What does this fold into?
Amino acid sequence: MRRITSITALIMVSGLLAFGCQDYPEGPSVSLVPKADRVGNDWKVGEALDNGTNVTADYSRYELDLTPGGTATLTAQYTLLGMAYDFVTDGTWVFVSDEKKISFDFANDQADGVYEILKLETNDMWLKEDGGTLELHFVQR
It folds into this structure.
């Protein structure tokens, strides 16, 4: 009986790997952690690309705190005309388009947006602006 259970489990795992459960272009191939739990994290921008050009310096002080339950806080520090500004806005996030995209709705509407999910792992989340050229590679803070 134990051998049948082991063989069945092996067949199921092989099937998952062969046919793939990869929802996102950059991975992961398979994850046992629910997607909302992987999104729920304290993130910072590790790399930012705009049309392939590295613009990470422009986003080095951006932090995104997300909960698996759908709440979001965006914190940014930036400099404009030699003056430093702090920007904080709270909001929500939801999956859209069969969980292939994520939508943010913040109190400050200028921070709202929809992003294609390129990669969603526990410590990495790569997002590309829907219809845009900005790609943000978030890493766990």
Q: What stands out?
A: The chain has a mean pLDDT of 87. Residues 2-19 form the longest helix (18 residues). DSSP finds two helices and nine strands in the chain. The longest strand covers residues 83-96.
